[in-house]
Specification:
mainly alpha; 0% strand
Length: 189
């Protein structure tokens, strides 16, 4: 990683409340994978967010907004996140959301196929819609009208909007992970 993870004892007064908020929130949705070193330093995208709280705090507020009380089914969210992570080759994102996918009983072959940058043949209709939206947005340009309509049919207008904000948020997370060269932690961390 291009910047060191900061142990809790080394945090300044601006970083401490952000750390506490992150550590509290992680106990819910963000579980099943390594997020902290043994000394309590946060890993993944949380490390650079803590290091630069001027940017990290607004970023974290956005992450919480797209994570707290989602209306989309868990499998739909994970398919979209994995497809986004695969496009950007964001290792930590794929690592973390493969673990979350397993927790919610997303089939291992679906996870592996999406993480490899391919489309599984056995996606449900809703998962297929999420995959199409994520892949289309990652390709760049305007989301095709047919894809938007497919998302509205599957999830309603609010759900389609939630899906777009989710994918956009994970574009940003992928950029943070890749920009700061965040690796996959080991059990030794």
């Amino acid at each position: 990683m291009r910047i060191p993870a900061t142990p809790p004892g080394d945090l300044n007064e601006e970083q401490k409340p952000l750390y506490e908020d992150m550590a509290t929130e992680m106990k819910g949705y963000f579980s099943g994978f390594i997020k902290k070193r043994k000394d309590g330093a946060l890993l993944g995208p949380w490390a650079p967010a803590l290091r630069y709280p001027k940017f990290g705090k607004p970023w974290w507020d956005y992450v919480k907004a797209i994570s707290d009380n989602p209306s989309l089914p868990k499998s739909v969210r994970e398919v979209a996140i994995l497809a986004t992570g695969a496009h950007f080759k964001a290792g930590y994102e794929l690592y973390a959301h493969s673990a979350i996918g397993e927790q919610i009983h997303l089939a291992s072959d679906k996870i592996a196929t999406i993480a490899a940058g391919e489309r599984p043949v056995d996606l449900t209709c809703a998962e297929s819609t999420a995959y199409c939206v994520a892949v289309s947005l990652a390709a760049g340009g305007r989301l095709p009208e047919a894809t938007w309509q497919m998302a509205v049919e599957a999830f309603g207008e609010g759900g389609a909007a939630e899906l777009i904000f989710l994918v956009a948020g994970y574009h940003q997370i992928s950029a943070l992970l890749n920009g700061f060269d965040v690796g996959i932690p080991s059990d030794k961390d």
